[in-house]
Structures
1.
Amino acid sequence: MAKMTKRTECFMARTIGFIGLGLMGRGMARTLIRKGHRVSLYNRTRAKAEEVASLGGKVAATPAEAAREAEVVFTMVSDPPALFEVVESKDGILDTIRPGAVVIDSSTVSPQATLRVAERLKAKGASMLDAPVFGSKNEAESGQLGFMIGGDRKVFDSVQDLFEGCLGKSARYIGPQGMGAYAKLVFNLTICIMLQGLNEGLTLAAKAGIDPGLMYDVLMGGRAKAGIFEFKGPSVLQRDFTPFFPLKLMNKDLKLALDAAHALAVPMPALAAIKEVFSSAMAAGQAEEDFSSTIKVLERQAGVEVKRRS
């Protein structure tokens, strides 16, 4: 049964390998360094690792080097192929992982990818937690992320302080291996469906002649109010699509969610429709913008811009 754990503190410095220093990973790695952990850093683009290491970490030439002395190895990569590469390829984590070490994968990948990697690590005497996050790059930098965790409960308990004392404000244990991955897909598909509702409502309001900013205020003053609206609404109305979470990554996550739904024979009509909107946005060159920029697909078709007028 899912359980919200009590917040703890980092109670000892650990030797940690951190692999994947993109938009979220760099903030997480910097937080671990600031909390006093010994962190070995790997990224395909070495300059990103060197930037993070300026706080006190050590740059590794390969994933294997980052994992060699580590008690805990974090991975934060873009998709299942990237995870397989850093774990299974030559000079990957499997080459040097120590028996008893814990690999924490905070990437958003398929449950099947998680189970595959967990089995490979188990053969080496290591354990794995699938621990995807929710939050933005700002929360990653400030240690305020949320985690959804799948894997052995005893393994989670042994590293709980890293989640709630260092990197996050909450860590919810979901269940056995793969359940964290499933939970993250559910989380992201729900966010996208909700945001599409806001986008469609504001686009209709703008086309009808209502100030979208005023319409947004009305929605937020009633039962339509939602956290994702509060987070993304103001930036949409200001036409600010700076990527807190790039559209291309959310597009990948929605595909993973659709694949999971098909595998389990779960109908997802709304998700299928939203995925088409994301595909249109990708085709229009919006891959690097924030995922809230999907409103532009509606705007182009409606011939209107959604922007606060006063």
2.
Amino acid sequence: MDQQAGGQPIVVERRGTWHLVRLNRPEKMNALDPATVAALRATLEAAAADAGCRALVLTGSGRGFCSGADLSAGLEPGQDLGSAIETSWNPLIRALHGLPVPTIAAVNGIAAGAGANLALGCDIVLAGSSASFIQAFSRIGLIPDCGGTYLLPRLVGAARARALALLAEPVGAAQAEAWGMIWKCLPDEALMAEAERLASSLAERPTEALVLTRQAMAAGLPLDAQLDLERDLQRRAGFTADFAEGVAAFRDKRPPRFTGARAGDRRA
């Protein structure tokens, strides 16, 4: 463990080739105050800069994943919330979506508001059976942020996305899986073991290709433009060392040994 849990809003554990990141304000259900947002962003940026990190798991300490923004941390009516989003929340979400390694959310307990959209912004979302997702924004007169208006229609369709945002009703983990909002609902006691298994598996795969796949799927362009994007991203993938290794392993009839090195990456 690189940071001790006491007093740290974010705890990071390096597990060989992947990082386990915990939101660590269990007494507040891991609510996101400005210090936690800044610490999480710094953690993601450090992972992005670490050539030895090839996957990341995000979870919460205690009984919940994240209850959203900490409304007791100086958030008052009359503030310019757009400014706060521009300087704090949006950079965090851009860091998550732009992370050059695959991400897994292990949702334990409640994921509300910004916490729900933080989880849904990961590449693969696992949830314990007691977990729930709530777009709680309308309860206090706000709209979904942290990418919620982008993610929800793409995950569950426009009709469900609108209802979830307007009604702020919780969606249990099993329902979230049935709707395609998340990858899997698991027994609570099996959640972290599966997250760790997936992280270890992803960390052995061709990292650049995985991230380029995320980029292509997020684009949502008209077909002709999407085909052009596939061409450009495939060009990048074709110059990676992992592609060369994959072809060599196929020809040699052996398992590939991917390194995760990026095209032109001199760190690996």
3.
Amino acid sequence: MERKNLLTIKNLHKEFDGNTVLKDISLEIAEGEVVSIIGPSGSGKSTLLRCATMLEEMDGGELIYMGEHAVKEEDGKCVLASKADLRRIRRYFGLVFQNFNLFPHYSVLKNIMDAPMTVDKISKKEAKERAEKLLMQFGLEDKGDAYPYQLSGGQQQRVSIARALALKPQILFFDEPTSALDPELTGEVLKVIKQLARENMTMIIVTHEMQFAREISDRVIFLEHGDILAQGSAEEVFGSENKRIRDFIGKLNS
């Protein structure tokens, strides 16, 4: 059965100060697909994620969620959808940052409850039930009353993932979710992401964890100098004969 297309990016172009960071990037993400984006530092991986989540303005191209245009190109310029349409489109995705971005003055429970109450307008009771269920799922059921500073980095990142999931997005983006963690804590976050993959959550993950990308991904995209150098199944990309890709993977695995 063919999977529904959730996200389409067409001919994405992005510049900073006259320097091209992303060149004519086009890709489609299907429902239930796990896509890892790998490549050297400065290749445009995080910028691609920031453009896809509208944290960064595109200089060219189209962005389409669930068949709805968030960004169109008209007369060589990118035009955003109306504010009302963008509000709705933004509900389709969640984003997990590398540095957690939790509210330090909110408890763990309030961090997770806040957006569903303000964005989805659900009751406090329902938001609390949703938050407690997520904390239970991620092994944090005893941390609801704690504050972010009282948690390890791995626990904070699991709370960040729970917070993103509390709005029930169709797609979850991860921007190097383990780069701020030491190796011991990295494992507990990767375990949560693997759990979500088993539950068929659609995910796009920028990562430098090669073994993890290999295990979890339906598709791997290798970016370099703002271009897609290769994309395909994990076996295809990690088994590539391309010298640049082999050198990059070899360096990270050594």
